[in-house]
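Reviewers asked in the last cycle whether our approach scales beyond single polypeptides. To address this, we selected a multi-component target totalling 226 residues and predicted its structure end to end. The input consisted of the following lines:
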Amino acid sequence: EAGVAQSPRYKIIEKRQSVAFWCNPISGHATLYWYQQILGQGPKLLIQFQNNGVVDDSQLPKDRFSAERLKGVDSTLKIQPAKLEDSAVYLCASRKWEFDEKLFFGSGTQLSVL
Amino acid sequence: DAKTTQPTSMDCAEGRAANLPCNHSTISGNEYVYWYRQIHSQGPQYIIHGLKNNETNEMASLIITEDRKSSTLILPHATLRDTAVYYCIVRVPMNTGNQFYFGTGTSLTVIP
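The resulting structure, written as C-alpha cells, was:
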C-alpha cells in the first residue's frame, strides 16, 4: 500500500512570506497529524484531525499557523507570515483511527526561513 | 513534555548487537513503550512496541524492566543500514486518541 505522501520535499522562503505544505495520508486512514521537528529534536505535535474535524490544536501557534482537511482526506498546513524559528521539518502522519496501534509518517517537508 | 530520556549518541560495530537504553520512570500502567527510528531525510519508521512483556519481531527485541521504568531496544545484528536516530516513545491514551510523546532520541552509528 502507498505510504503517506507529502510535498514539497524542500522549501526555502524569506521571513514574513507565506508557505503551504500538502499531505495525502494512507488510504482509509481517518486520523491525520501534523508534527514539527526542529533540528536535533523529536517531532512535536501541532494538530490532529479526525476525518475533517480538528480534535487537538492546542500546540498550534494559531496567530500564524493554520491547517485544514476539508474532505477528510488530504490536508494542508499553512504558515503566514513565517518567522526564522519556523525553520524545521514538517511531518505528516496518519493512522486508521485515533486509537490504532501504529502511526505512519511521511518523509516530511524541510522548511528553511531566511 | 518528553516522558523519556535516552543517551544522545551511541556507536556499534557492524554485526554486533546494538543495545539502546531508555528511561521512562514516570510511565503509567496503561501507557505503552514504542520505538521508532528515523533515517536521515526520512520520516520516523515504526520498530516495535510493548506494555510490560518482552517483545520480539523481525526487526528487533524490546526488553522492559519489571517495574516498567526503563527499557532496552536490541538490534541483534546491526548493519550499516541501521545507522539512524532511534526514538523511545511513551504512548499516552487521551480522549482525542493515543498520543505519542517523542524525546530527543539516540543517534546510533554502526561502524564497519
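Strands of chain B lie at 9-13, 18-23, 32-38, 45-50, 55-56, 61-64, 70-75, 84-94, 97-102, 106-111. We regard this as preliminary and will revisit it once experimental data from Aim 1 are available.
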